[in-house]
Amino acid sequence: MDIEQFRRAGYQAIDRICDYYASIRDRPVLSQVEPGYLRKALPASPPTEGEDFQLIADDYQKYIVPGLTHWQHPSFFAYFPTACTFEGILGELYAASVPTPGFNWSASPACTELEAVVMDWTAQILGLDNSFYNTTEVGGGVIQTTASDSALIATVAARSRYIREHPHVAMGELVLYTTTQTHSLGKKAGLVLGLKVRALEVTAEDDFALRGETLEVALKEDVDAGLHPFVLIATIGTTSSGAVDRLDEISNVVKRYPFLWLHVDAAWAGVALVCPEYREACQLPAVNNCADSFCTNFHKWGLINFDASCLWVRHRKHLTNALDVTPEFLRSKHGDAGTVIDYRNWHLGLGRRFRSLKFWFVLRSRGVTGFQQYITDCTKLNATFAERIRESDEFCLVAKPFLALTVFRLAPKSLPHLTALELNALNRAFYARLASRSDIAITQTDLNGVFCVRMAIGAEKTVERDVDRALDMIGREGRATLREWENVGTIS
Question: Is the Cβ–Cβ distance between 179 and 200 less than 8 Å?
Answer without folding.
Answer: yes
